[in-house]
Design goal:
Number of strands: 5
Order of helices and strands: HHHHHHHHHHEHHEHEHEHEHH
CATH class of the domain at 230-378: Alpha Beta
Helix content: 55-70%
Structural class: alpha/beta
InterPro entries: UBA-like_sf
Number of helices: 17
Largest sheet: 5 strands, parallel
Organism: Tetrahymena thermophila (strain SB210)
Protein name: UBA/TS-N domain protein
Radius of gyration: 44 Å
Strand order of the largest sheet: 3-2-1-4-5
Length: about 375
């Protein structure tokens, strides 16, 4: 029994050893196969490189290998491998080499002569860009001409538009003729003006006149010390020039906004050095109802004016003040407002200098008051 037991143990040991040996042999065989594959791969890569050596080793496109492969296929297709290698070794552009060889049917000497006379890459690009832009411009011009001809040849569309206008305003043709005699020849603009102004030709003509005045108007961007003698400010138009003003407007705290505007104008007046008169015009001033506060600002050269009840609003008051000024002094007077309709009315009164509210306060902040003093007033 003991002999059988030892014999079975020996058999088990032999089996495990043979299994271990077979496993080791398998691993060795796998490693050998991997090494063979790697060596074969390297050989294939070397063979590919040597095959492509005649076509140059430079890549035409850094983005992908497909571009290079396509280009190499073209070279092979035409049978220019040897010629390509000769020319690429001389440093010529790859694409231009192919072009030159195709143009000269594979003749290396003629291809090289072509490459030597070819313009640089930058010039070629500029030439192509110029040609493309010219072609685009030509096509755009042709399209515009076609559209123009189509419009000229289609009076029916104009008749349709006119018919629609007449449907909305039955006596439009007569009213349009009246406005045309006054120098307003655009039927579409005349229709809009009549529609806005209760079909009244006089009001429409006034509206169109203001619109023309606005188109000709050039707002001031700056001024120098001593240039101005008087400044009128449309204060209600200044309530939204600063973020803090907007917050206070939402709360309905207009008195504090008015006080800040007056303080900023006082600082400007002091820093302007030359004598200048300031006129602040409000619709219905809350600050002026507080006499003690108003007296802190008001003097002979600094006036606070509430348009009501004498005028309907600040716009009417400013137009009235503009009409009182003689033409000779208009060049030394500045009106500050961003209201376009008010600007047009002021131009009718021969006002020469108008500045938008936002631009005016930004300008005095940078050039007279100083950003620190300005911010201290605005943010308090």
């Amino acid at each position: 029994m003991k002999d059988n037991y030892f014999f079975s143990i020996i058999q088990i040991d032999l089996k495990t050893k043979t299994n271990q040996i077979s496993f080791q042999e398998q691993q060795i065989n796998k490693n050998k196969q991997l090494q063979i594959k790697r060596t074969n791969k390297k050989k294939n890569n070397k063979m590919d490189k040597t095959a492509e050596g005649a076509l140059g080793s430079k890549k035409l496109c850094s983005k992908c290998d497909k571009c290079m492969q396509k280009f190499l296929d073209k070279i092979r297709k035409h049978g220019y491998e040897v010629q390509y290698e000769m020319l690429s070794n001389k440093g010529y552009d790859e694409r231009m080499i192919l072009k030159a060889l195709k143009k000269n049917k594979g003749d290396v000497l003629l291809a090289e002569e072509f490459l030597q006379n070819a313009p640089p890459k930058r010039e070629r690009r500029e030439k192509h860009h110029k040609r493309d832009s010219q072609e685009k411009q030509k096509s755009d011009d042709e399209k515009n001409m076609k559209c123009k001809n189509r419009k000229e040849r289609s009076p029916s569309k104009r008749k349709e538009k006119l018919h629609k206008m007449v449907e909305e305003i039955p006596n439009f043709e007569d009213l349009n003729n009246q406005l045309s005699k006054l120098g307003f020849g655009d039927a579409k603009e005349n229709f809009k003006a009549l529609k806005k102004n209760e079909r009244n030709p006089e009001k429409a003509a006034s509206h169109l006149q203001k619109k023309q005045s606005l188109q000709k108007l050039q707002l001031r961007e700056s001024f120098s010390k001593g240039e101005l003698k008087k400044i009128f400010v449309d204060c209600n138009n200044c309530f939204f020039i600063e973020h803090s003003f907007i917050k206070q407007s939402v709360k309905g705290d207009f008195k504090q906004i008015e006080e800040k505007i007056a303080t900023l104008m006082k600082l400007f007046q002091a820093s302007y050095e030359n004598q200048i008169q300031i006129v602040l015009v409000f619709d219905n001033s809350s600050m002026m109802k507080d006499q003690s506060l108003a007296q802190q600002f008001a003097d002979d050269s600094f006036k606070l004016i509430s348009s009501k009840p004498q005028f309907q609003n600040a716009d009417d008051a400013l137009v009235h003040f503009a009409s009182l000024e003689i033409p000779e002094v208009q060049s030394s007077i500045l009106f500050v407002t961003s209201d376009q309709m008010l600007q047009a009315r002021l131009v009718e009164k021969n006002v020469k200098n108008i500045m938008s509210s936002k631009r005016f306060f930004s300008f005095i902040k940078d050039n007279f008051v100083g950003s620190k003093a300005y911010s201290a007033v605005v943010e308090q």
